[in-house]
Amino acid sequence: MLYVIIPVFNRWHFTRACLQSLQEQKEQNFRVVVVDDGSTDGTAAHLAREFPAVEVLPGTGQLYWTAAVNLGIRHALARGADRIMTLNNDVVAPPDFIESALRWARRQPSALLGPVELDATTGQPVFGGETFSFLTHQRHNLLATLPPEDRCGLHPVTYLPGRGLLIPASVFVTQGLFDERHLPHYLADYDFTSQARRAGFPVYVNYDTHLLTYPDDSGQVQTRQRRSLRGYYQHLFGIRGGGNLRNFTYFALKNAPVFFLPFFLLNGYLRRLLGYFLH
Fold first, then answer.
1. 242 or 185, which is more confident?
2. Glycosyltransferase 2-like domain location, by residue (predicted)?
């Protein structure tokens, strides 16, 4: 049984649209768990009234993404889940999303699979997977290099984000849950999938599965649009900071090859210290 885990904190309009899209899936053999981490906008009442079939786990308000997802995963595994999908609330799943993801999961039962992301406003692809060099710190964007005729099926990548990430339960048995201690919000998904790949689990972006997202509404984008000294501090040190130096250091120590580590750290620190003002 597939369990879909959705961490939420407020933004009910996103959560409603996401859950409605899941209700409209062609494939309905899955269960949905929402981890409501202390929402103050009536999310809990709305869920009980509009989506009574959804399982809701309350949080403390201090879980953030990683601990919230882990809470849902523990719940699902205890109930016999053989696959877990992590899904943000600010996404919309096309009707064939689950069906396509499970079709490929049956062909590659040990693989971690992620969808191609389309901008929900324009329909244009915004994420199609990437490979990453720890030596040069360069990302190779598959969307920029794959010809149209090859934009189908599975393509290997270095890591995947948690939006629509499909994970076999065997991965959790092998390496445990997401690293909520060191990576409470950002980079936990990239770390988890990178660790899984190194442990022998294939990691693919699935070009036959699409997910609609709102890239301009992410916390990182909004922080950079409102550039300020306070925003810069939050960017580098806040739990939700996309350039959090502490989180990056832990990610580097866990994932970068030891011979590349000094250069990778230096390169990464410079990118985070300067990138807030340059992008």
1. 185
2. 4-111
